[in-house]
Write a structure and sequence with these properties.
- With about 400 residues, this protein is of the alpha/beta class.
- The protein has 14 helices and 11 strands.
- The chain has helices at about 25-30, 35-40, 55-65, 80-90, 105-115, 130-140, 185-195, 205-210, 245-255, 265-275, 275-295, 315-320, 335-345, 395-405, and strands at about 100, 120-125, 145-150, 165-175, 200, 220-225, 240, 300-305, 325-330, 360-365, 385.
- The strands form 2 sheets. Strands 1-7-6-5-4-2-3 form a 7-stranded mixed β-sheet, with helices on both faces. A 4-stranded antiparallel β-sheet has the order 8-9-11-10, with helices on one face.
- Helix 6 links the parallel strand 2 and strand 3.
- Helix 4 runs parallel beside helix 10 (about 265-275), helix 5 crosses helix 6 (about 130-140) and helix 11 (about 275-295) runs parallel beside helix 14 (about 395-405).
- The chain binds pyridoxal-5'-phosphate.
- Pyridoxal-5'-phosphate binds next to helix 5.
- Pyridoxal-5'-phosphate (PLP) binds near residues 104, 202, 224 and 238.
- Its EC number is 4.4.1.8.
- Its cofactor is pyridoxal 5'-phosphate.
């Protein structure tokens, strides 16, 4: 849907160069803002469209045969509102060729996997993946003749020993959903590339701002934009950003499946994207304050946060990530599910609900152990996943302090 934009700040090579400045936060402000799409205003308007009118039959013929990004054709192929968002996401991933948008993060995961797999292939899927990704492999890929093997999130370069002649793709998620193990993304990508195997990552937790996945060697980077890109808990949206060898097929598969995102949702996501940098900084600060406080509490057995030294893969997080976001888990000591419910139910500042990445804090009881098949995950107690929003961390800590006393 979008190639790198032609606006002056977006044209330089990824990295630090560029006359106007090309660092990620600067790119965030300018990304996707093509003058031909925005006109004289700062943000692109919401273009609502199904039918798009052609000048004449020759114009219709020419545009049909071209099927080009950034050219009005039919509502399903988007308008400048969706293209601006797709373009912006492409610009945030140095080395990317283009981005496709999807009506949810799950649709993005499905679209990415379907674009690289065919019957007879084998997929290596990280054991700590988001549960619906596991369900997609089992419910849709398996009956299609694509076999999935799950691997230890800490496998690192040892992934090479799992490759067979049928292995076609490795799907990473780092840190892992619920348990937050950090993977050795560059080592896995290098091993895969040496065998011609494609790599995908679910980069929802970090976003390209904290983990430039494609620059680290990943071929397709998936984001549930529902979370931090939108940032306000009011839109469902997903994206896949791909390198040149994979973008064309990704686009063909998305078009064939009729994937489309409404312009109002794309517009809201683009609005959210502009403040991603400052929000993530605050989510990190609040998340770290709460995580470090929890780690000192006798009622807490473990805190699963990539920025804490005892989180599996913490050294990799320090090496590869530009920071942490606001989502992590902790495990209670000497407590049962009823005690955990007393803690969560009485919290005043944390909502109970799925998703995360909005401005508000959330608490969710989680049980990762049954979701594992490659390596056992020993909880040692009931676990809680927290999303730390933009509230004052001191108030959140006071709320949790009262909660721990309810145990
Ligand atoms: C939420 C989530 C998704 C799915 O996104 P939806 O927009 O809810 O479909 C995918 N991956 C991860 C890691 C998520 O947390």
């Amino acid at each position: 849907m979008g190639r790198r934009s032609g606006h002056p700040q977006g044209d330089g090579p990824g990295g630090m160069s560029g006359q106007g400045g090309d660092r990620p936060l600067t790119r965030l402000a300018g990304a996707g803002r093509r003058p031909e799409w925005t006109g004289g205003v700062v943000n692109p308007p919401v273009w609502r469209a199904s039918t798009i009118l052609f000048d004449d039959c020759a114009d219709l013929d020419a545009k049909s045969s071209r099927n080009r990004d950034g050219e009005l054709y039919y509502g399903r192929r988007g308008t400048p509102t969706q293209w601006a968002l797709a373009d912006a996401l492409t610009e945030l991933e140095p080395g990317a060729a283009g981005t496709m948008l999807y009506p949810s993060g799950v649709a993005a995961v499905a679209g990415a996997l379907l674009s690289v797999l065919k019957p007879g292939d084998e997929l290596l899927l990280v054991d700590s993946c988001y549960q619906p990704t596991r369900a997609f492999a089992q419910n849709i890929l398996a009956p299609m003749g694509v076999a999935t093997r799950f691997y230890d999130p800490l496998v690192g370069a040892g992934i090479a020993e799992l490759f067979t002649d049928k292995t076609r793709a490795v799907f990473m998620e780092s840190p892992g959903s619920l348990t937050f193990e950090v993977q050795d993304v560059p080592a896995i990508c290098a091993a895969a590339r040496a065998r011609g195997i494609v790599t995908l990552i679910d980069n929802t937790w970090a976003t390209p701002l904290l983990l430039p996945a494609i620059a680290l060697g990943v071929d397709l980077s998936i984001i549930a934009c529902t979370k931090y890109i939108v940032g306000h808990s009011d839109v469902m949206l997903g994206s896949v950003t791909a390198t040149a060898p994979y973008y064309k097929r990704l686009r063909m598969v998305a078009q064939s499946l009729g994937q489309h995102v409404g312009p109002d949702d794309a517009w809201l996501a683009l609005r959210g994207l502009r403040t991603l940098g400052v929000r993530l900084r605050q989510h990190q600060e609040g998340g770290l304050a709460v995580a470090q406080w929890l780690a000192t509490r006798p009622e807490v057995a473990r805190v699963l946060h990539p920025a804490l030294p005892d989180c599996p893969g913490h050294d990799l997080w320090r090496r590869d990530f530009g920071g942490a976001s606001g989502l992590f888990s902790f495990v209670l000591r000497d407590a049962d599910a009823a005690a955990r419910a007393r803690l969560i139910d009485g919290l005043a500042l944390f909502g109970i609900g799925f998703s995360w990445g909005g401005y508000e804090s959330l608490a969710l009881p989680v049980d990762p152990a049954p979701l594992r098949s490659a390596v056992r995950w020993e909880a040692g107690g009931p676990a809680v996943r927290l999303h730390i929003g933009l509230e004052d961390p001191a108030d959140l800590i006071a709320d949790l302090d009262a909660g721990l006393r309810r145990l």
